[in-house]
From TrEMBL:
<dbReference type="InterPro" id="IPR055430">
    <property type="entry name" value="HAT_Syf1_CNRKL1_C"/>
</dbReference>
<keyword id="KW-0507">mRNA processing</keyword>
<feature type="compositionally biased region" description="Basic and acidic residues">
    <location>
        <begin position="729"/>
        <end position="745"/>
    </location>
</feature>
<feature type="domain" description="Pre-mRNA-splicing factor Syf1/CRNKL1-like C-terminal HAT-repeats">
    <location>
        <begin position="81"/>
        <end position="359"/>
    </location>
</feature>
<dbReference type="GO" id="GO:0071011">
    <property type="term" value="C:precatalytic spliceosome"/>
</dbReference>
<feature type="domain" description="Pre-mRNA-splicing factor Syf1/CRNKL1-like C-terminal HAT-repeats">
    <location>
        <begin position="384"/>
        <end position="530"/>
    </location>
</feature>
<keyword id="KW-0539">Nucleus</keyword>
<dbReference type="GO" id="GO:0000245">
    <property type="term" value="P:spliceosomal complex assembly"/>
</dbReference>
<dbReference type="InterPro" id="IPR003107">
    <property type="entry name" value="HAT"/>
</dbReference>
<dbReference type="GO" id="GO:0016607">
    <property type="term" value="C:nuclear speck"/>
</dbReference>
<dbReference type="GO" id="GO:0000974">
    <property type="term" value="C:Prp19 complex"/>
</dbReference>
<comment type="function">
    <text>Involved in pre-mRNA splicing process. As a component of the minor spliceosome, involved in the splicing of U12-type introns in pre-mRNAs.</text>
</comment>
<keyword id="KW-0677">Repeat</keyword>
<keyword id="KW-0508">mRNA splicing</keyword>
<dbReference type="GO" id="GO:0071007">
    <property type="term" value="C:U2-type catalytic step 2 spliceosome"/>
</dbReference>
<dbReference type="InterPro" id="IPR011990">
    <property type="entry name" value="TPR-like_helical_dom_sf"/>
</dbReference>
<keyword id="KW-0747">Spliceosome</keyword>
Length: 745
């Protein structure tokens, strides 16, 4: 972009393409290349070869070429290739002095050009100018000491000339610059070629990598210096320490000792390394250790290797996630089975130090078992009761009892103190639990403890505290009453039951009432039992209560027990006539029928049978959650006799339906007889089973109704039907037909 005098930038105009449509003939890149090749102009012929016949022509040719080279150099002095071509041309004419002058002039232009120095030195060596070549190499390595190629060429030249001292001197000058590893290896190989072993031990001081230490040790081993090789490995282990430790060093050290048949040293090296090398970097170490134990170890050694490997895996897991308590459990199970008590304690202390970050019980459920296992280990395995007590106390101090607690810990602590014959501490611990954080399990465990100790007065006090804490717990009331019953104080037990059923809120009242009734039956207080049943029936009319009442009366050994039982069934049937749950009423009647089948007369049996309902299949609409119609479903309903008496249309409708079916069957028979051609006896025999079909069909039960007929009857008797308008018109026609048919009947 050009700039104007005012400093504004002027944007060049861009040619506008008027016709943007694609060209009719499309040209590809391949076509362009092919056409360019075909249309290539004829190559110019090479210049003719010039034959020089005398010295004058040769001088003219030299002058012309030199003038050309000088012109090229004058045009661009920095193009080193022009200098090199000029010098090589002079060299081809055996003008070494002139070539040397050109190289010197070129070095004045660019003395850091590596190619220029190499070409210059090669020219001198080709022409056997050894001192000049040494001079050039000295100047090159002085100016550019980090260019390894100069050093390699220089040392190679000196060695080829047999100047071993000079070559060593060059290597020593080179090593002062502390070059890369390959340079050191070249120096070492040079010294080894001339049997100078003592001068080959300086590499690891400049490049102290693991591989160089290993090479150094292998070098000493190769030349028979076993003690020096072992010392090299030991120096390497000491040099790297525990911060920069490497498994390759220990693997090489172990293999070295294995070659020397020092198997105990090998085992110690492997164990030392496995304790210090990071686990993710110790795979090769584990593999070699396992192979070694399989070759030279016993079964115990192989198991130690496997256990060590698993320990490292668990260490990695718990380091990655310290709150992974499942990993801690596995790790602790492993160390408990294989190591000493101090190591196990150390792992337990590390595990319990990882307290859950959130004070919510669901996060503490797994964590608390670390403390439990720790205490059990100290008590059962180590047999240290004092340390076990400390573990329990530390755990109880750690739990935030104001937010939540664990009854299991309190109970385990109390049981531990009892095992140690320290009952006072056990009671003190459970009392503290009830005072700080009362829980059902703590109360139950404390009461069970006192029961085992036969301290019944303490049990009564605990039950009282328990009921003050949770008066709606029916199980507690029942257990308290059972305790008094066992102790022979039935009046106290009865008073407890009375207090229990008088509570405004209970979690399982039916269980409580059943226990109270069973208690009175055991005491043979039948009048009290009848009173309880009547009081219970005032609260609930559940069918099972009536059935239980009847069975109770039947179980009493008296003369009027059957009459009393029958009277209870009659009262129950009356009270449940208005019940919406027809299945419960059916259950009552079936129980009554079983009673009459066993103890009643024929009249009573017939009476109960008449009270049984009819099972009717019906259909009803299903409504989806969004209020849309979801179709129809079939269900079974029970129609009791008094319900049928209240709805007379049901019986009439059933009779009309049966009559209509009979009419349709008669019409079908007549049509078949008109169309059938008699074909002898075989046709008659075949027609007989066909005539039996309608008769068999007529024997279907009368209590299967179609819901549409029920809906039609209900629509004619009341306005609460749920059928559609079209269905109502069809039902009206059907009801008119049934009325006419009934009049004919």
């Amino acid at each position: 972009m050009a700039s104007t005098a005012a400093g504004k930038q002027r944007i060049p105009k861009v040619a506008k393409v008027k016709n943007k449509a694609p060209a009719e003939v499309q040209i590809t890149a391949e076509q362009l290349l092919r056409e360019a090749k075909e249309r290539e102009l004829e190559l110019l012929p090479p210049p003719p070869k010039q034959k020089i016949t005398d010295a004058e022509e040769l001088n003219d040719y030299k002058l012309k070429k030199r003038k050309g080279f000088e012109d090229n150099i004058r045009k661009n002095r920095t193009v080193i290739s022009n200098w090199i071509k000029y010098a090589q041309w002079e060299e081809s004419l055996k003008e070494v002095q002139r070539a040397r002058s050109i190289y010197e002039r070129a070095l004045d232009v660019d003395h850091r050009n590596i190619t220029l120095w190499l070409k210059y030195a090669e020219m001198e060596m080709k022409n056997r100018q050894v001192n000049h070549a040494r001079n050039i190499w000295d100047r090159a390595i002085t100016i550019l000491p980090r260019v390894n190629q100069f050093w390699y060429k220089y040392t190679y030249m000196e060695e080829m000339l047999g100047n071993i001292a000079g070559c060593r001197q060059v290597f020593e000058r080179w090593m002062e610059w502390e070059p890369e590893e390959q340079a050191w290896h070249s120096y070492i190989n040079f010294e080894l070629r001339y049997k100078e072993v003592d001068k080959s031990r300086t590499l690891v001081m400049v490049h102290p990598e693991v591989k160089n230490w290993i090479k150094y040790a292998n070098f000493e081993e190769k030349h028979g210096y076993i003690a020096l090789a072992r010392k090299v490995f030991e120096r390497a282990v000491e040099f790297f320490g525990e911060e920069h430790i490497s498994e390759n060093l220990y693997v090489a050290f172990s293999r070295f000792e294995e070659k020397q048949k020092e198997f105990e040293r090998v085992r110690i090296i492997y164990k030392y390394a496995l304790d210090r090398v990071p686990k993710q970097q110790a795979q090769e170490l584990f593999k070699n250790y396992t192979v070694f134990e399989k070759r030279f170890g016993d079964r115990r050694g192989i198991e130690d290797v496997i256990v060590s490997k698993r320990r490292f895996q668990y260490e990695e897991e718990v380091k990655a996630n310290p709150h992974n308590y499942d990993a801690w459990f596995d790790y602790l199970r492993l160390v408990e089975s294989d190591t000493d008590a101090d190591t196990v304690r150390e792992v337990y202390e590390r595990a319990i130090a990882n307290t859950p970050p959130i004070q919510e019980k669901r996060h503490w459920r797994r964590y608390i078992y670390l403390w439990i296992n720790y205490a059990l280990y100290e008590e059962l395995e180590v047999k240290d009761p004092e340390r076990t007590r400390q573990v329990y106390q530390a755990c109880l101090e750690l739990i935030p009892h104001k937010k939540f607690t664990f009854a299991k810990i309190w109970l385990l602590y109390a049981q531990f103190e009892i095992r140690q014959k320290n009952l006072q501490n056990a009671r003190r611990g459970l009392g503290t639990a009830i005072g700080k954080c009362p829980k059902n399990k703590v109360f139950k465990g404390y009461i069970e403890l006192e029961l085992q100790l036969r301290e019944f007065d303490r049990c009564r006090k605990l039950y009282e505290k328990y009921l003050e804490f949770s008066p709606e717990n029916c199980t507690t009331w029942i257990k308290f009453a059972e305790l008094e019953t066992i102790l022979g104080d039935s009046d106290r037990a009865r008073a407890i039951f009375e207090l229990a059923i008088g509570q405004p809120r209970l979690d399982m009242p039916e269980v409580l009432w059943k226990s109270y009734i069973d208690f009175e039956i055991e005491q043979e207080e039948y009048e009290n039992t009848r009173g309880l049943y009547k009081r219970l029936l005032q609260r609930t009319q559940h069918v099972k209560v009536w059935i239980s009442y009847g069975q109770f009366e039947l179980s009493i050994d008296s003369d009027d027990r059957i009459q009393r039982c029958r009277q209870i069934y009659e009262e129950a049937n009356k009270s449940m006539q208005g019940c919406e749950e027809k299945e419960e009423r059916l259950m009552l009647l079936e129980s009554w029928r079983e009673f009459e089948d066993e103890f009643g007369s024929l009249a009573n049996k017939e009476r109960v049978r008449k009270l049984l309902p009819e099972k009717v299949k019906k259909r009803r609409k299903i409504t989806a959650e969004d209020g849309s119609d979801a179709g129809w479903e079939e269900y079974y309903d029970y129609i009791f006799p008094e319900d049928a008496a209240n709805q007379p249309n049901l019986k009439l409708l059933a009779m009309a339906k049966m009559w209509k079916k009979q009419q349709q069957e008669d019409e079908e028979e007549q049509e078949e007889e008109e169309q059938q051609v008699p074909q002898g006896k075989e046709a008659q025999e075949n027609s007989e089973p066909e005539e039996q079909g309608p008769a068999g069909h007529r024997e279907e039960p009368e209590n299967e109704y179609d819901d549409r007929d029920d809906e039609s009857s209900s629509s004619s008797s009341s306005s609460d039907s749920e059928s559609d308008d079209g269905d109502r018109e069809d039902d009206k026609d059907k009801t008119e037909e049934t009325k006419a048919d009934t009049e004919k009947l």
